[in-house]
Design a protein that fits this description.
single chain; alpha+beta; BirA Bifunctional Protein, domain 2; SH3 type barrels; 2 domains; 7-stranded mixed beta sheet; globular; binds biotin; biotin--[biotin carboxyl-carrier protein] ligase activity; BPL_C; EC 6.3.4.15; ligase; aa-tRNA-synth_II/BPL/LPL
Length: 256
């Protein structure tokens, strides 16, 4: 009952009016109805307990934005390449957004969607492992699309497609592109073409090769992002040489 031109991503689409979190809903479904078709997608008009990275809260305006979760089973991924799932998803979402916002969509390491120093959306990937391999993966994607205003406390840090384009975009048009690009990058991932993913990721990476100010443990320093290791750590060139950072060890302040 849909017309997405994909083989599997989005072919089983479950639309909900309201849910606590599409990630929670999908994880529940996976545990109750295995085998669930790979590429199954949950989409909700509203989430009342959306979750973000690092136990944070993800808030969204009902009916205006994208809150979705995609079910994948990347059991083929070797342990030392699991960060490439995050890369593939980030590329898919940024390419989808770039169909509507032709210039300026960036990926802020590891997987935030950015437009001119403001956050447009985020990704929360939750994996179930068997041994060292990923048994199932719930890919949560939250994007600010047709929300035109933000509360004062996040107004300086958040933006939306409607704020950028001054017009609204049908959510399903964006979903369609997400499905197409998700399938594309997932197949590249499955083929083990890691250098393609790495190059594409760096070409869209926020602040890549640009001198910026960073903060670690309250200390501000100058640095230039030079790359991302296979395991996902960020490499930054600093006055004291090349340094590597894990997620949340470093904060971006601003471009110099
Ligand atoms: C972040 O930037 O911290 C990640 C935000 C991820 C939000 C999405 S919305 C759909 C899915 N369900 C959730 O509860 N979270 C993700």
């Amino acid at each position: 009952n849909n017309t997405f031109s994909t083989l599997f991503v989005g072919q089983n689409l479950i639309k909900l009016k309201e849910v606590d979190s599409t990630n929670n809903f999908l994880k529940d479904l996976v545990s109750k109805s295995e085998p669930l078709a790979e590429g199954t997608v949950i989409m909700a008009d509203n989430q009342f307990a959306g979750r973000g990275q690092q136990e944070s809260v993800w808030q969204t305006q009902a009916g205006k934005n994208i809150s979705t979760s995609i079910y994948l089973k990347p059991s083929f991924l070797p342990l030392n390449k699991q960060f490439y799932l995050n890369i593939a998803v980030s590329l898919a979402v940024s390419d989808a957004l770039s169909c509507f916002v032709p210039e300026g969509i960036k990926i802020k390491w590891p997987n935030d969607m950015y437009y001119q120093n403001k956050k447009l959306g985020g990704i929360l990937i939750e994996n179930t492992l068997t041994g060292n391999s990923i048994k199932s993966s719930v890919i949560g994607i939250g994007l600010n699309i047709n929300q035109s205003e933000f509360s004062d406390n996040i107004n300086q840090r958040a933006t939306s497609v409607i704020q950028i384009l001054q017009r609204d975009v049908p959510l399903m048009d964006i979903m369609d592109k997400i499905f197409i690009f998700m399938e594309k990058y997932y197949l590249i991932l499955r083929a083990g073409k890691y250098s393609i993913l790495q190059n594409d990721y760096l070409s869209r990476l926020y602040n890549f090769n640009i001198l910026g100010l960073y903060m670690q443990n309250g200390e501000i320093f100058e640095g230039t992002i030079k790359g991302v290791e296979d395991g996902g750590r960020l490499t930054v060139d600093t006055k004291n040489g090349l340094k590597v950072f894990n997620f949340k060890e470093i904060e971006f302040t601003h471009t110099k």
